[in-house]
Design a protein that fits this description.
The protein is of the alpha/beta class. It has nine helices and six strands. The relative contact order is 0.19.
Length: 205
């Protein structure tokens, strides 16, 4: 398959889910739709065996990840990790970048048809757009070796205006704005891909 630096590739991706905790999630815009798509994204990552990191902001006070999402996450057979944090931006915790580097090294050993220096895609979803998603993303944009891809329809906050401002700022800083379905089809690329039927069924759920 011909390499394109613009298209997402499943064997070159890490999924990062940021702070899907009910005490905050249920106060955000269109949270039920966002949660539904985020669950599909987790299932998609499992289908394509994409490593996944679930971040949790101050879980002692805000609780853990939404129970429906957590059930899907725990059932995943792909490489996965839960990362508790106190810093709004995940990179503010000393061991986050080390965890990310560990996953990226594994990907670079196994990916195919990519230049040696091709950046690893970091697929970002989570809440809130203008706080933890924004700070984590801005931090990651400063780290060499990664390309940031924001799954916009899997990201939300308490204000649609603040959401759009955060996405616009991140795009100006160099992030790629995408969505669940675009990522799904880019990971599949072809009608005769072994995962096409399951991917299509997942989209229709």
């Amino acid at each position: 398959m011909k390499y394109s630096s613009s298209l997402c590739k499943a064997d070159n991706a890490i999924l990062i889910a940021i702070d899907f905790q009910p005490k905050v999630l249920q106060h955000t815009i269109e949270w039920e739709d966002v949660k539904s798509l985020a669950i599909k994204m987790l299932k998609l990552a499992d289908l394509f065996q994409v490593p996944t990191i679930v971040c949790e902001q101050y879980p002692q006070g805000l609780g853990h990840t939404d129970s429906d999402m957590l059930a899907v996450f725990e059932a995943m057979t792909s490489d996965k990790a839960v990362f508790p944090k106190l810093s709004f931006g995940s990179c503010g915790e000393n061991n986050f970048l080390a965890l990310l580097s560990e996953k990226a090294s594994m990907i670079k050993k196994n990916r195919k048809d990519l230049p040696e220096d091709a950046p690893v895609d970091l697929i970002i979803m989570g809440i809130e757009s203008h706080i933890c998603v924004l700070q984590t993303s801005l931090e990651l944009l400063q780290v060499k070796g990664y390309r940031l891809v924001l799954a916009d329809d899997c990201i939300t906050g308490r204000s649609i205006r603040r959401h759009h401002l955060a996405m616009s700022r991140l795009q100006q800083e160099g992030a790629t704005i995408s969505n669940f379905e675009s990522i799904a089809f880019e990971w599949t690329r072809r009608k005769d891909h072994a995962n096409f039927k399951k991917m299509s069924q997942l989209i229709r759920e």
